[in-house]
């Protein structure tokens, strides 16, 4: 079993209680698939399951490649039946229900789920109907409440957004919070000899152009320029590119005599000739 398969097997069940729209079940499936969740349970969906057309097509289009989850979704008549085989259940809600249950953010709940529960414990997360959220009778079945730290000026989340936030936090807790890929190194870091040669070339051309004025400030201006370029951590390709840029800027019109002069300067100051 691969790590992805093992993670998927331990992933919490997503339980949509009385979902109103089949299209929202589709977007939920897509959110689940993004983060390795596969156990989708539906409690008394309003449009039935599987739905008839056009609701079926809308759900499949919204799933966007996660149609397999729609096909394996299980349907239950009651919330109690949907959670019967689970060891721990969370209820998502936007408001305090006065039931004395632990109230957790998605991050805290999913970290606790991964680190504190037995490896074979089965977990489920309840999500309520789109318009009203979970009833108190649904919340009472849960061990803890998950609520979302959103801006109170606009705290409305749609169903798939809520599922996505919890699924993302679970995935981070289970698989690690690291980027799936890193930068590709296309060119090795430039050696200091090449960088110093570039500095010398740039400063020589700037001197010809009268940049270093007043003359007494030239040492400070040179250091400032070198520090700017040093902070960039130049690669071999960077050095070649900057040399080409400087040449084009100072070459101006393509005058044969000027081009020959510049080529001689570059050959005399190129890293290979140092």
TrEMBL record:
Residues covered by the tRNA/rRNA methyltransferase SpoU type domain: 13-168
Keywords annotated in UniProt: Methyltransferase, S-adenosyl-L-methionine, Transferase
Database matches in InterPro entries: Alpha/beta_knot_MTases, RNA_MeTrfase_TrmJ/LasT, SpoU_MeTrfase, tRNA_m1G_MTases_N
Entry keyword Cell division: no
A single BP term in Gene Ontology: tRNA nucleoside ribose methylation
GO cellular component assignments: cytosol
Family note: Belongs to the class IV-like SAM-binding methyltransferase superfamily. RNA methyltransferase TrmH family.
Protein name: RNA methyltransferase
């Amino acid at each position: 079993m691969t790590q992805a398969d093992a993670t998927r097997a331990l992933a919490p069940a997503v339980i949509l209680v009385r979902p109103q729209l089949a299209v929202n079940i589709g977007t939920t499936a897509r959110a689940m698939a993004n983060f390795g969740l596969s156990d989708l349970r539906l409690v008394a969906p309003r449009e039935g399951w599987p739905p008839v057309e056009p609701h079926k097509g809308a759900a499949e289009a919204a799933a966007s490649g996660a149609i397999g989850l729609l096909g394996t979704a299980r349907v239950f008549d009651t919330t109690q039946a949907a959670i019967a085989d689970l060891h721990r259940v969370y209820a998502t809600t936007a408001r305090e229900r006065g039931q004395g249950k632990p109230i957790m953010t998605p991050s805290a709940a999913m970290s606790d789920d991964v680190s504190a529960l037995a490896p074979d414990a089965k977990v489920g997360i309840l999500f309520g109907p789109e318009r009203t959220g979970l009833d108190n009778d649904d919340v009472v079945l849960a061990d803890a409440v998950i609520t979302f730290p959103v801006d109170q000026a606009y705290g409305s989340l749609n169903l798939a957004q809520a599922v996505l936030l919890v699924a993302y936090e679970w995935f981070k807790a289970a698989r690690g919070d690291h980027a799936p890929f890193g930068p590709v190194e296309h060119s090795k870091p430039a050696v200091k000899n090449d960088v110093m040669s570039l500095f010398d070339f740039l400063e020589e051309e700037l001197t010809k152009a009268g940049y270093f004025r007043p003359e007494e400030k030239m040492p400070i201006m040179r250091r400032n320029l070198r520090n700017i370029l040093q902070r960039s951590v130049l690669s071999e390709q960077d050095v070649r590119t900057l040399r080409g840029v400087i040449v084009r800027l100072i070459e101006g019109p393509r005058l044969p005599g000027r081009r020959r002069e510049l080529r001689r300067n570059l050959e005399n100051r190129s890293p290979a000739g140092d």
